Hints:
This protein is of the alpha/beta class. It has two domains: 2-148 and 327-339, Glycogen Phosphorylase B (Rossmann fold); 165-323, Rossmann fold, CATH 3.40.50.2000. Helices cover 42% and strands 17% of the residues. The chain contains 14 helices and twelve strands.
Amino acid sequence: MRVLLEIVHPADVLFFKRPLEVLLARGDEVQIMSRHKDVACELLDSFGFGHSPVSRAGSGLLKLAGELLVRDVRILQAAWRFKPHAMVGFGGVAISHVGRLTGIPSISFYDSENATLQTKITRPFISQYYVPESYSGPTPEGRTTRLRGTKELSYFHPSTFTPDRKKALVAGLDPEQNNYFLRVVEWRANHDIGKSGWTEELLQSVLKRLVATGKVHLSSERDLPDSLERYRYRGEKRLVHHLVAHCDLFAGESATMATEAAIMGVPAIYAGRDFPGYVCELEREGLIQNIRDVTETKLNAAIDVSLGDTKNVFRAKRDAFVASCPDWAQEVVASLDRHAKGR
């Protein structure tokens, strides 16, 4: 089988890593069309996956629209040359357009209800849409499959991902004290336009609270003042999840990283701007604390609750949830086998 894979975000690399390994191990051909977005290309390189960067992430509606046009054209050209039996992506905007033009099946996995513009220009054209059971946004009628759980179960399923303490130590884990991981984002995606996140004052307050009892690892997409730079995570990007898995707490404004932490058995606090169905489901399962209308008081109270819960209790909740969900990596491969055309 020939598969064209669209990568637009670092999380996509993790989502498709195990499916890629399965496809390549059984002799399928895969062409990866990547995007310069944060560390997406760096992650592909670190995992040894060959790829073709076709665009660079823009900022603002006009630049994002221009970038999409470039992606559409270049992926169309790649499809003409490669002649894939199926195309797959997370979100899948460009492959949905190319699929409609060429007749090649396009498969999208997605989970963010807040990306209304993105889904509006994808839904009419995508061949098949895969979303979590908790997804509350509109989906294409007759072309949607729902899966229990979250996309993080593709890469962080405990049956295949084992956190490596040695890698965590290389990444900066301090074995002599508690470790905490914070994540702040830049708010530049198409669904982030007009939004902003944690203030510098709020970040300073959380850091002060946590530094008093342990080591803080701060991951930031945006520039930081000199007073905060010393907390910035500087380890290898490919090791960061081994570090997070050994931390005592995750807190941040990234729904994706909060979910990753929860699936790895780390108490997680999500204090962002949008609350997709999957973080609400994890909140009901007791795996994430969601904070709306973020304030210093609310955030510090949530930290107290998380640090008061033992890891054994939290991981028992995680294990029960994961046991009720499919392995999403297997679902990706099965979807390609199911929908590929002309093999």
